[in-house]
Structure formats: C-alpha cells, structure tokens
Amino acid sequence: MARIATVSIRRHQFVPATTARLAVCVAVLSMLGCSIANFNAESMPNSMRVTARSNPQEVDLTRLAAQSVSNELIANGDVLEVTIAAGLSEDDTFTIPVRVNENDGMGSMPVIGRVPLAGKRWNEAEAIIYEQCVQQGLYKSPHITVTMKKQRVNRVRVIGAVVEPNTYELPRQHSDLVAAITAAKGLAENAGEFIEIRYPTTDGGATIDRSSPRIAGGHAVDSPSIQQVSANAVIQPAAHMKSVRINMVSAAKSGANGYNVPDGAVVFVERRDPPPVTVMGLVKHPGPLKYPIGKDLRVLDAVSMAGGRSLSMADKIYIIRARPDSTKSDVINVSIRTAKGSLKSNVLLKPGDTVSVEHTPITMLAEWIQILRFGIGTSVGLF
Question: How far is it, in rounded angstroms, from Cα 199 to Cα 229?
C-alpha cells in the first residue's frame, strides 16, 4: 500500500505544471478582457499587417552622396598665399598670407586692400589682384601667384548608431552625409532608418539657407513653423539651428542627389532598440526573444526560436498585439498547419508582440494521456 500511495503522489506531480501553463494563458487573456478584438491571420485588415522591415546596413549610401565642390574654387575661410613679383630680383618679391573672410568672401591685403576672392578660380583671383595693384599705381606690371596654404574644413560631430562617434574634420569639397558616416567607420548594427542633421544658422531659423543640407532637386515650402524639403526630409526651424530628418532607405531608393553637411553640423543616426517578442504556452523554451534588427520575424520563426512546440499536435496560436497609443489589444488567430503553407498566414510579427501557443481539447487530451502512461509505467515498475 505504501508503494501505491507513492505512485499516486508522483502521478499528480504533473498536474500543477499543466494547470500552471493553462493558468498563464488564461490570465493573459483575462487581463485584456473586453479590450481584445479577434482576427484571423488570413482575413485580418491590411492596417494590422506589419510591412517588411528595411535593413539600413543594406542601403547603398553612395546614392546619398552630394556633388563634390571643385578644388579649383576659393571658398570662405580658406587661407591663401599671394606672391607678388614686382621685378627681377628676390628683393622685389614678397609673399602675403591672406585669409578669405567667412562672411563676405573678401580677402584683405596690406596696401592693396580688400578684394573679392570667394568663388573665384586661381587665375581669376590672380587677375583681380593684378588689376587692383595696377589701378592703385602700386606696381606697373607685377607677376601675381595665388596658392592654397590651408583649405577650410568643416568640423562635423557624428553621434548615435555609428561605429565610432566623434567630431571629424571633413574636406570642404567632400563634406556630405556619406563622408560623415564614413569618417565614423560606418553604421552600427543597431542603426535605424532615420538620420537627423542639425546645423547652425545666423538667422535663427526663420528662412531656408540654400546651402543647407537637402535633397537635390527638392523644393522647400516657406512656413513659419515647418518647412517641407521632400517626402522624406523636413526642416524644422529652431533658435539658431535647423534640422533635416532623412529616411535614408527611402531617400536611397528614390535616387536623391545627396545632402551637404556644413561646418558645425551634428549628424545623429537613429538607434533601433525594438522591444522583444514574448513566446509562451506550449513551447519548449518560453520567454522573451530579441527582435532582429533590420530583418523580418514571422510567427513560425518565433516558435522555432523558442525551441519548437512541446506537443507536436499543438496548432492554435494567439498573437496578442497592443494597439498604438491605446490600452487595448488585438488578438490574431493563427493555425500552425495553415501558416506552413501560406506566407500570408505566417504573420509578420511586430516588436512587442506576444505569441501564445494555445491548448486545445486535443492537446489537453494528449497531455493527460502522457501523464497516465507515465503513471502506469511507474506503477508497473514499482510492483
């Protein structure tokens, strides 16, 4: 009799585990209560379906590169060396360092005065200085040579989901979004689709600076509060700063002609940190699953990542999906058997979804049969 009592206790040790799993599933659904709306995977509205996720790592960044500025043009902030040879001897030759003014593009030289240099080619700058010297009667027929001593660079800060966030000096003629990301050693694995460029202005953000970052060919619409550059880029005025937000996946697909990054700009690459997908119920390893960045996750993938079904005949799945900006949730009914043969039924999961592999009368019967078989086998072994 003592042996029989022992067997009875061991048989019933399986009941709490089964009951606990059922209780968890019931508890989740009961907490949602009347907030649940039920849909079938095949017939649920398109508004509930998750679109395929784009992977920023696969974006062709060369399509976001801006047209390079010619090295032959003098720019604001450049430091030049102007050599004037008035005669044949070395004593008649002297060199003057000239900085091109950041604001008006003028160069200032002793005696000669201020001359317009920004936007000029080397030979044009030499001709302007020559004419100024002759007009003022300083030299009769001087030989003028203009060379670059130090070219202006743009200091750009790159932060967010890049490999090496830092402040970088970019050559003026190649100061664009691609150059900034390349300087930071590329996108990090958790990079999202959006990039924001913030850059300083001197007008408090009231009007658009035409040299500011924008999609080439885009037309800005003047507005006191917001300015639309394109379907994927919006400039929002701020105190002495402007910003442009770019969906780099869409921009690359549309063939945008690039974004310039001016001096003092901050490039922020969005970090993507999606909430996990939770798998529960009749799976071998229930719990949260890390949502893959830049990849699709379907319901059968989630079940497989949770170790597969604990009962092979389990077929019913509930996908519990919270509604955006609401306390309510929707439940999507999925059949594993149907999902294996239909991509539409193998629903794309959204970060934060809960996947519950449910009990049915068949799975409950199968589980009780397993318990009974184990109990009977144990009883026979004891006797």
Answer: 15
